[in-house]
Structures are given as C-alpha cells and as structure tokens.
Amino acid sequence: MSLTVPPVVSVVPSRALVDETFEVAVQNLPPGSPVTLHSLHLSEDEDFWEAFGHYISDHRGTVSLAADFSFGGTYTGKEAMGLLWSMRPVPGSREGLRLRKRNVCSPLLVNISVYSGHVEEGFRQQAPLASALTERWYMGPGVRRMEVRERGVRGTLFLPPGPGPFPGLLDMWGGGGGLLEYRSALLASHGYVSLALEYFSADELKSAEIEFSYFETAFNIVSQHPQVIPDRVGMFGLSLGSVVTSYLAAESSVIKPRCCVCIAGIHVYPRGETLKGFYRVLFSNAHKLRVDENNHEIWRDRLLPLPDDLSLKVDVGKINCPMLLVNGRDDQNLPAVEYAEDMAKMMRAAGKEHLLTRIEYLDAGHLIEPPYSPHFRATTFMKDGTKVEFCSSNNQILYSVAILLWGGRTKPHSDAQEDSWNKILAFLQHHLYSSQTLKAKM
Questions:
Q1: Staple partner for 276: which of 61, 96, 145, 208, CB 3.0–4.6 Å?
Q2: Residues 119, 244: one domain?
Q3: Which InterPro entries is this protein grouped with (predicted)?
C-alpha cells in the first residue's frame, strides 16, 4: 500500500465508561484498500486479548466501524463495538481464561490499530499503519471507593459524585467467591451507592457456614449510610448472588428491599440452612454432571428436575417488591430459565406475578455481564486465583481443576449483555429513583 499522507486512527471518545459506545474511524487510506482493524488489551493477569475485523476503505479513503461492514475476523457486519465484545485470548494463550478488572481505580486500556491487508494472525509481529489508545473505565469521574470492614461485613462501597442522598444497592456475585468490584463501580457511576459484597473466600467455602444475618447486616450498612435514601435500597445478584437475593426478599423480616435484579438465578434453597445447605443440594447430584466435546463440564442438569418439595425452594410467593429476572436460554451452568418459569408460577399462585419481570435471550449463556465485555463460553472456575471444582463427599467441599461451560454464542450473547444492561438501568431508575427521591435530593 503506497501512502503519501500517513493514516490516522481516531477513537471518540478516547476515555469513557465501559458501557458507553465509541466511534472508531481510519482516515487517509487509499480508496478501495483492504485493511484490518485490530484491538489489543493486556490484562492484569498478563494475558493478551484481541479482536479484529476486515474492511475495505471507501472512495474517500476512510473506514468507520459504525458505518462500514466487516467482511471477516472475530466479528462481521456493521458493529461499532465489535473490537471490544468479540475480544478473545490471542492464539497460544492459556486455556479457560476470563477477563475481569480487579483494580477499578485504573482503566482498561485497549490499543486499536490498522494494518494493511486482511490479516488473520501475527499482529504483534508486524508494524501497524497507525494506532490509538483508548481508556475504558468502570469507575467514572468523582466516584469514591471506600473499603468496608464493619460489623463483620467485608466489601467495597462506591459512592456517586455529589452530596446525595442516593438510592442504594447491595451487589452480590456468584459461587466463585472473593471480592469483585467492577459492577458496583459502574452502578455508582450511574448514580447508585453500591456495596460490592464479599461473602466468602477460598478457605470459607470449605465450610460455607455463612448465616443470612451477614447479608442483612450488609444491606443495613447500605441503607443506614448518610448519603443513602433509606427506603430506596435494592439488591443485585448473579448466579449464587441471585439465590441469596431471592431468599432475602422472601424470608427476611429485618430488611425490605425496594426492588431486586437477578441474573442467571434459581430459587433452590433448603430453608433454615446456611450456604452450605445450597452446596449440599447442588452436589448431591454429581452423577448428573455431563461434559461437552471439549471436556468442559456442564452443571445445569444437577438441579433438574425441579424439586417438588417446597422446603427445598425459596417461597418466592412471599416476595413483596418488584423483581427483574435476566436469563440466557443457553445457560449451561444452571437451569435458570426453568426455575424462572417455576418462580412465575409460584408468584402467580400468591397473587404476586405483577411484581415479576422476566427477560430471556435465546442464545445467551450464564455470564451476562455489563455491555461490551467479551463473551466467555467456557472458563476455568477460579476462586481467589485458585482453580477449583466443587464436589461433595460426606458434605465436604473438595477441590480440583475444571473448566465449566457457561454457554452462549458470542454475537447474540453480546447483544443480550447490551440490551439487558439498558433494561436493568431502566428498571432501577423506575423503582429506586422517583418523585420522592427527587424531592429528597432537593
């Protein structure tokens, strides 16, 4: 490719929240030239992630990701954010990787480059025509991060900029344990005081003797914060965090959540048990475990068929707040869609179905994350940096290495992440922000 004026890659805005779109364009290319747009990110675990698309420059010598088609690569078609959501580990990487931001006080840095021709591999072995660096943030300007070590509760509280008061959220992740902050940081960037809760570590999972008073205390830490509107606090859970969310909403006499969001959740829970009871139910059916053609473990059958014994399920008919269920129909980890139908049946019988909103996505999997996050169909199940598989023997939790199949196909799963996040934010806005909220803030 003969160039008289050097090509230029532009990313606008170059600094943005992870759920915001950007515009990527290349100028000063010869008209009708084949080029490859490539993104590269070095994770905090020192793994490289990449995505790329094949384009033909127009008569002006420009390429726009939003306006032009990618004819090949890790995505095809008009995909303005394809260089993010289709990211995958570079060839030769470790198996079962998952990209997660641990330090939310720093940005996720992505280098976007243009190469001559339709390149498939070896990007780091050749010089690009031009490059630009973009910053993707979970924690927006003015958001404050505070460690919580209070009343036995461990976590991180994120406060939106300004004096408040604000609505609040208790944010709980799943069975991988540990402390994950990035969703809470993003929620605070949208105006919610959010507590990212750590509710067990690797050592604690061996016993999992966590009483529900722990979660009630965590909820009260949020609701009693001076910058939180006390009666405008909700709960947000994924996977095991959704189990805890539905249990608290139905059974707690101490807290009254204003609304709940559950992603990939189920309502199996032996009443009166600690978390250990849930794992005992899950792993009592270890013989139902299947593997796919890649020897990735499929767990969803362990909780099928749904139990008829009501003592093994959360009595969701007791729930008195609006609840949003977000599920992927290709979830290979939990039978969340089947359980959502049962939850709807139980709430209908209790005259509470009007409180339930269900969203399902045909080819989405278990791990429905904030928008433009890469799709993880199968990953090593990780706990505080340790690869683990849970199994039970005489009510003991044992450890070994496994790669779990989460499910989903990349393009529809990514579309589901974007659509569901917008609907989650609208749900929270409707139920946690209101005329009373606005009046309290004035």
A1: 208
A2: no
A3: AB_hydrolase_fold, Acyl-CoA_thioEstase_long-chain, BAAT_C, Thio_Ohase/aa_AcTrfase, Thio_Ohase/BAAT_N
Tell me, what's the pLDDT at 175? 80
Same domain, yes or no, for 121 and 169? no
Distance CA 109, CA 132 (A): 11
Q: Which pLDDT value is given to residue 1?
A: 52
What domain range is 57 assigned to? 8-137
Alpha-carbon Rg of the chain, whole angstroms? 23
Mean pLDDT of the region 109-132: 96
Whether 163 and 125 share a structural domain: no
Domain assignment of residue 397, yes or no? yes
Asked if 59 is an active-site residue, the reply is: no
Domain endpoint, select from 137, 170, 195: 137
Measured from the Cβ of residue 249, the count of other Cβ atoms closer than 10 Å reads: 25
**Residues 6+ away with beta carbon under 8 Å from 16:** 22, 134, 135, 136, 137
- Of 137, 160, 177, the last residue of a domain is 137
* Helix, strand, or coil (residue 51): strand
Does a structural domain hold residue 1? Answer: no
Selecting among 331, 375, 414, 431, the annotated active-site residue is 331
Structure tokens at 383: 């706990």
What pLDDT, on the 0 to 100 scale, is given for residue 174? 87
Residue 92 within a domain: yes
Looking at 38, 225, 267, 366, which residue is catalytic? 366
Catalytic, out of 116, 194, 239, 242: 239
pLDDT value of position 208: 54
pLDDT at 5 (0 to 100):
87
A 10 A CB-CB count for 308 gives 7
pLDDT of 384 strictly over 50 = no
Q: Answer yes or no: do 350 and 421 share one domain.
A: yes
Q: Which two tokens stand for residue 295?
A: 């020897």
Higher-scoring residue by pLDDT: 67, 271: 67
CA angle 33/38/39 to nearest 5° reads 155
| pLDDT at residue 177, as a whole number | 76
**How many structural domains compose the chain?**
2
Q: For residue 239, indicate whether it is catalytic.
A: yes
Whether residue 71 is found in the same domain as residue 175: no
Pair 272, 343 in one domain: yes
0.85 surpassed by pTM: yes
Asked if the model's pLDDT at residue 289 lies above 60, the reply is yes
Integer Cα distance of 84 and 422 in angstroms: 18
Both 128 and 173 in a single domain? no
| Residue at 62: amino acid letter | T
My answer on whether 84 and 182 are in the same domain is no
